[in-house]
Amino acid sequence: MNLAVVLRGQTHDLALKNPVLTASGTFGYGLEYAPYGELKSLGGFVVKGISLTPRDGNPCPRVLETASGMLNSIGLQNDGAEDFCTRKLPLLPWRETAVIANMYACSVEEFARLAGRLDGEEGLAALEVNVSCPNVEQGGALFGQDARLAAAVTSAVRKAAPSKHIMVKLSPNVADIALIAKSVEEAGADSISCINTLLGMALDLRARRPALANVVGGLSGPAIKPVALRCVWQVARAVRIPVVGVGGIVTAVDALEFILAGASAVQVGTGNFMRPDCAFRLVERLPEACAEYGVASLDELRASLCCPTC
Ligand code: SIN
Fold first, then answer.
1. How far is the CA of 141 from the centre of ligand 1 (A)?
2. Average pLDDT over every residue of 205-231
3. pLDDT for position 138
4. How far does the centroid of ligand 1 lie from the alpha carbon of residue 200, in Å?
5. Strand pairing class (198-201; 165-170)
6. Which residue is closest in CA terms to ligand 1's atom 5?
7. CATH number for the domain including 194?
8. Is residue 70 in some structural domain?
9. What's the structural domain count of the chain?
10. Integer Cα distance of 133 and 87 in angstroms
């Protein structure tokens, strides 16, 4: 079965050999996972969030396992764009699979500068614009919670990176995700990935303190899959650009459910922490799962959801 997918953007398409990507912040810069599978077997991978200058992130503890999931408050720790472009990207198999840079900034102007820096990198197939990180005070989910700000970031990145496919990653921590999706589509996004993490909290009862140093963090993993499916379904009905589903995807059947909800591709996130070969296994098992569920093609599956309001 042909699993190749083209995310048809408004300005640039993104061709993937299959619909399975890995989610930013869960797969390092790719090479860390090379011992567990063939990187080139993936549709692509989204590297850990990159900012213009290095960031230390939030104080520890900043990761915690929860029921069927995980809370993180990393705070976008990274070595900055220059280090990524000169030291990390040249080592990645970008000729063989799509390497996507997840990018974060604290202002619209900084997003534009970062996009301009990344636009010149031949090894990047696309930029994923993070307007949805719940773990940083400045910017973060705020950009993604305000339709006008989300549009301003998208249009600044679109202008500053004319050669790249622009994917915008949305936050579920909003009243109406379809509204935000429409605003980034109008501002020039080529595709939308959703969802980033849900804002959560855990407590240490004995110490009578929050379990994370940052007090709150982003919840991910199978616990959030129903929320992610709902968001993908709402967004896919609201926009014409492709949607990439993220949130609790661990198995090939999960991936097919997201495609049925309207996604054109998926990202595996917390599953990579559960089993480092999770995304590789998912790719391997996809044809088998398609056969088992009578899926003739991914396009046919995406158009086939039967529900009272569809
Ligand atoms: C983080 O580094 O805090 C996580 C990134 C994100 O949720 O966007």
1. 10
2. 98
3. 74
4. 13
5. unpaired
6. 133
7. 3.20.20.70
8. no
9. 1
10. 25
